[in-house]
Amino acid sequence: METVLIEGREATVKDVVLVARYGAAAELSTDAVARMENTREVVDRCVQDELIRYGITTGFGKFCDVVISQESNATLQRNLIMSHAVGVGDPLPDEVVRAMMFLRANALAVGHSGARPSTVQALVDLLNSGVIPVVPEKGSLGASGDLAPLSHMALALCGMGECRYRGRTMPSAEALKLAGLAAVSLAAKEGLALINGTQCMTAIGTLAAFDAWKLARSADVIASITMQALKGIIDAYDPRVHEARGQYGQIECAANLRSLLENSGLTTRQGEDRVQDAYALRCVPQIHGASRDAIGYVYDILSREINAVTDNPLIFLNPEDPSGGDIISGGNFHGQPVALAMDFLGIAAAEFASVSERRIERLVNPALSNGLPAFLVKDGGLNSGFMIMQYTAASLVSENKVLAHPASVDSIPSSANQEDHVSMGTIAARKARQILENARTVLALELLTACQAIDLLDASEGLSPPTQAAYRVLRSAVPMVEVDRIMYPDIASATALVADGAILRAAEQVLDGTEG
Fold first, then answer.
1. Per-residue pLDDT tens for 442-494?
2. Considering the domain 206-305+317-512, what is its CATH architecture?
3. Contact between residue 253 and residue 284 where contact means Cβ atoms under 8 Å apart
4. Catalytic residue among 54, 237, 299, 471
5. 506: helix, strand or coil
6. 297 part of the active site
């Protein structure tokens, strides 16, 4: 797999996913090392000359007026990491922690944080070695950044706390030794540079945004199978309708649906069986398309935040005085941009599930299903069939309604009211991730239900080529339900096929002409 270069300004969502999820190696660029060396000289000068600069020769937060001696600075950095590592709850997934490490190294590589290149290289080495700090998921207010989660990451770099290595959880010192790495002794400013930032919320959010875009396209594929099972009216996706409104996501979604349904023998035209469909079919472009637009907005925010400098204070070199520089205390650690985006992403993902559940209801309800057997089963009464599939989908949709309440509208002061407005961005990101998981499951339930309807119609050969390919992928793992059976394994299999993109790939390979 390709090596991802850490340059500070060029990282993409794809880079984060490659490193975090697929194990790509990371490498510091030579330009980044040079920039870090230059700003490090400014930090060293402040310490040597005993200049009073926040976070370099002073305490933190409310203790910003307490001056720290040169002799005590190493202790200050160590104490900062230890005292701030107060996370609680279950550990974050490994891929999220790997994303955090990559993002933090990338932020420091910009060269405004004053960290030594050797410390950033040690973080990259930790990432590449497969040593994964144990980071509890709860405890961040999202300003001043993700202090608690990033402190747990920094603990491991310093040989403290716990890590996962080769499938085992162990003390960090043991993991470092097994991996052939040495613990880092932090110098002035480095503790703050490591933990003052938005990399936890951004890590969760970047992976979630990537998954959301895949889910958006998968939702189109699955809705297209339902459209055919219910003999939906294709006229509603006419390009003229959507161009008349001008919403980009809607236009793109309608075009995708037309491609997915081309050459179907199961769709109908306006007036053939009925004049118009219910909204869950007719308004798929409007609903899915709006969520597509929301995901696009989130991508833009995160693409900037991935390359953002989010610690404090920041160091800016003075071209007229190479030996000096400006040290400015600001607030880039505040997670508000990401918090709002994560709340939006959660709402957008919840809508995929909400309309999917309505399509499931239309498939199983004989009053709405255009002639399909009640609850999609033979010998109804003796067999319950897909009755409770809709029940489970409704449960997840209702849970999403609770989770979609925005976290970013909340704030609570901390640090003796020095930090008097916070973003709750990491809570928003965690909620968005959970909503996505629920939405993925609901869409998997719809996939199972729609394919069952197709089989009861004995109509799989009438499916459009892309959706027929998706149908066959599901049927390779989950057979039709002839009589009642235990179905939670079917749900797990279908959800896995949606999650890893197998359903989407099957359909898109037909569209791209690359199938087989």
1. 999 999 999 999 999 999 999 999 999 999 999 999 999 999 999 999 999 99
2. Up-down Bundle (1.20)
3. yes
4. 54
5. helix
6. no
